[in-house]
Specification:
It contains 8 helices and 6 strands; from the N terminus they run ααββαββββααααα. The strands form 2 sheets. A 4-stranded antiparallel sheet has the order 1-6-5-2. By secondary structure, the protein is α+β, with helices and mostly antiparallel strands. A hairpin with a 2-residue loop joins strand 3 and strand 4. It has one domain (2-33, 82-183). It starts with a helix and ends with a helix. The longest helix has 37 residues, at 147-183. It has helices at 2-8, 11-31, 52-55, 82-111, 116-122, 124-130, 135-142, 147-183; strands at residues 35-37, 45-48, 59-61, 64-65, 69-73, 76-80. The radius of gyration is 19 Å and the shape is elongated.
Length: 185
């Protein structure tokens, strides 16, 4: 298991995990409507709420927090909510680590003479869990008429995503460790 954890420290796996985390964060922010990309050209500007300290932990809805600042740039508006950023980054990092571990498990499975799909399938449950928090809001953005139930589900799916991603990460870590032990890597 130490060798697998040590493999996560390798620069290629770190770049993979953090790149996925950054992409996931952007998608999460779009899904919770904190990042809007549109076709409107506007000058670069920003402002912060005068009572931002009181807004940091105030919830708009379950697992969605108030905006403390706004940054406007050409073609985008970013509503900055530190708690939403923390939630999105944590979920993104769990997903990124999951994908890095899948890559390690795949490499170890190939070295062991098994099909590469063996390593990839080990991470499937965790990867599917990563979409749990954003999928309902993407339905809303697409205009599907189940809006009320999807927004209600959002409050339940964020903790479910944390749990499933954490459990998937542990399962994939164990599978990767076993495959690497079998391959003597």
């Amino acid at each position: 298991m130490r060798k697998v954890v040590h493999s996560l420290i390798k620069p290629a796996n770190q770049v993979l995990a953090w790149s996925i985390a950054a992409a996931y964060l952007m998608l999460f922010l779009v899904a919770v409507a904190d990042l809007t990309i549109d076709g409107i050209w506007r000058p670069l500007s920003s402002f912060a709420a005068s009572d931002w300290q009181n807004l940091v932990l105030r919830q708009r809805s379950p697992f969605q927090f108030e905006t403390v600042a706004v940054v406007e740039a050409p073609w985008l508006v970013w509503l900055i909510s530190p708690m939403n950023i923390a939630i999105g980054l944590t979920l993104g990092l769990l997903t990124g680590l999951q994908i890095a571990l899948v890559r390690i498990a795949k490499d170890c499975a190939v070295a062991c003479g098994l099909s590469p799909a063996t390593g990839i399938l080990a991470g499937l449950p965790g990867l599917l869990a990563g979409s749990a928090c954003c999928a309902p809001l993407l339905f809303v953005l697409l205009g599907i008429q189940v809006t009320a139930s999807m927004v209600t589900l959002m409050g339940l799916l964020v903790p479910v995503a944390f749990f499933l991603l954490g459990a998937g990460l542990v399962m994939t870590l164990r599978t990767a460790a076993r495959r690497c032990r079998e391959a003597r890597i």
